[in-house]
Amino acid sequence: MKQDKEKLALYIVDRLRAAGFAAYLAGGCVRDRILGLRAKDYDIATDARPESVARLFDNTIAVGAKFGVMLVVLDGEQFEVATFRAEAGYTDGRRPSAVRFGTLEEDVKRRDFTIGGMYLDAATGRIIDLVGGIRDLRAGVIRAIGDADLRFAEDHLRMLRALRFAARLNFTIDPATWSGIRRSASKIAQIAAERVGEEVMMIMTQGGAARGLDLLVDSGLAAIIIPEVLPLRGCPQPANFHPEGDVYRHTRLMLSMLPRGCAETLAFGALFHDIAKPQTLVIEADGKMTYHGHTDIGGRVAAYILQRLRRPRAVQLRVAYLVHNHLRMMMAPRMRRATLKRMLAEEGFDELLELSLLDTLGSGSTLGFYHLCRRALATMSAAEIRPPRLINGDDLIAMGFVPGPSFKRILHEVEDHHLDGTLKTRDEGLHYVREHYSPADAERSWPKP
Question: What HEC string does 308-368 produce?
Fold first, then answer.
């Protein structure tokens, strides 16, 4: 059985101290401990050099030994153990060109934000706070350590981290830090798309996604990362369907209802579901607004954005499916039984239903379709929704049909009647084909090229 991750981290600290080194829990895990949150990762800061860490622990990985960073692996969990260090200049906006091992006082100055610049002495329970982190936690402020422009020049990704923390914790961003982000926003283009995409994903899924979107747009970062969202502001919608206002406000309302820790596919589905409305908007002479094709175009745009952000292929496909189909749900009460069952059986339908619920709650529409689909899922078994086919292509061949385009049409029609409940057995399916089709007619209907 795996041990508690914090206990494993404290074991590393104790082992280092027993060997005569200084060692502390550091960074985000200290912040989360003060906030009463369960930390996801535990980092250790020490004056032990990488080679000493390697000697003390059986399983280590030198992920950045020249920068003083080792991974210690215990019980399948990885812990970053970093030597106190001062860093030289940054040349690529990501990592220092060189480091010098130093003191705890020098180490804290290289960290990004005050709330992540604290250390915990596990032996005494004392928090070592040299940068005002506790003060800013109490005040709910994200503040860069030292000069904000310098911190963001060192690692441009810190700008997105600031936004993520502010959104997730519902903190404000210190004015000097905010100004630094706005001045440096264009530099985010120098960061690898994978790293940017990961941060955007976390902004959308870790809580406070609506605020995260506001911060992305207002900081100027969205203009570089996801400029497609900018036209959502000011894109009008008919008041009878969308009393909440423009497309941006509607999207923001949906994001505000996302549960913390939701799947990124749902979050990106909400963010991009109406992404093509601005480019498809037509306002008629009588004031009527239409957005013909916005779901089709939107699905393609969403997939393109996620490809650009290097999100997994499965995420791209699922989000494209959600965006493309999010309005189809509204038709559920008017669907024939076969069409409804086919929709219920689609991979990703549960998430599509959840997205459509958010879409409806963020507008003036009714929830009849949602309750109908929920009742159908609750009352119909998987075998009813997706039953085995009554007949297949081999049956058609045995009846004298030549393989070709007609097969799909005939089998689909039989399946429709099966799903509707008008055909129940294999014999009934075969009889239906004999009654309505003949091999000669099918062949004439679909001439070979």
Answer: HCCCCHHHHHHHHHHHHHCCHHHHHHHCCHHHHHHHHCCCCHHHHHHHHHHHHHCCCCCCH
